[in-house]
Amino acid sequence: MSKPQVNRIHADDIEPYRARGGRLRMVLHPGSVGSRSGYMGTVQLQPGEYVVEHFHPYSEEFLFVVNGDLVLEVEGENWALGAGDGIYVPIGKRHRLRNVGATESLIVYHVGPLAPDPSLAHVDTEILGEPAERTDPAAGTARILFMVKVAEEKREDFLAAYEKVRFNVAAALGHIRDQICQSPDDPEKWLIVSEWKSTEDFFAWEKSDEHKEVVRPMRECYSDPEFRNFTVVAETTAARS
User: pTM above the 0.70 mark?
Assistant: First the structure.
């Protein structure tokens, strides 16, 4: 596995993520620079905007206000923040960030250490705005299936390459979750299952120059690729008492 190198990335070159409120950009992370201890990004909020309540099960969060007037709600306690303020949020604490001023605010955040899986890095406890009127919340989402064959001697290189891809895709617009699966009957057969808000979101990422660059090491490890994509019609989840 290659050693991480010094790498500079400009925040404005990153497509903002809006599903959690404001404009969030994950700038430095394992997928973009190969970091191993955490990730860093920016949040821009217009007056009245907020980042939905969430918590980090495995990570601490550090916030620094570049400009703006904000309130950080942490487990029901309000912290007023202004330019030059830094604030620390411990692991597992539910928090929500609001712009309560009259101008746009800019915040830099750092989260670390890394969760064992990107899907566990950030847990939302509310949904931004009103939920869409849909009988089945999973209907319309996309499932991407990618089947490959990986020789045993290339297994470690394949998994190391996927490690970088999965952190990169976790920051992509419209991405929901990813899974990598190994066949119990044939250890050389692998399946990657990727879930997206729409097939359009997936293909936008798949056709990007960033995607082509980050998946190149994986391509060197597998053979016999098979690709399938589906749109979810309905989903059944387990009943809970």
Answer: no
